[in-house]
User: What shape does this take?
Amino acid sequence: MEDEFKRRMRNFTMRLQDEKELSKGSSSTTTLIEARRRIELHTSRSHNYQFSRHQEDITTHVIQQEVACHDSCTTKYHHQEDRLTTERSLMEIKPEEHLKYAPLQDFRRNISDEALEVYKLKRENLSLRCKIEILGGEKEEILKDNKYLKEELNRKKVIISHLLADIEELHCEKKQLTDIIRCLRWKKQQLCEKFEEKLNRL
Assistant: This one.
């Protein structure tokens, strides 16, 4: 019984492969219907040969695997056919259609270039903001130093004004001393002349 089952399974598998080669262009629904028909036919035959329920399950599982494999191959075939059709349609685009799509491509390229420029400007803006923050800190330090220097300058101005007043006062004193010296020289000269007169009288 087991050898008979193997022989029938082998023959059935070969017939299924032959039918699959013949029906490559059929849809998945048709394949499933035919598979169900084969399962029913094989089940009825298995009952005639008094197959066990375990053997029927094995037969059904094998057929379902074959159907799934067939569906997968059919799907891949349709996908490949669609892809080739699309590529052929793209290759058959006329030159005037290329010219029609050229502005769109230029527009997309310009958008890409503008996006790149915007990104560069944002980076430059961020860099400038960092520099402004750094310069702001330096400006604050400079303002503090400037305030200190102004205070120092005011103190120096006060000192200079006092020194100028002292210089003016010294000039006045010098002038007075110069007048006193002149007066003393004149008196000295008078005394010398009187003394010479007295000596001449003697």
User: Anything to note?
Assistant: The radius of gyration is 61 Å. The helical segments are 2-22, 28-48, 53-91, 95-201.
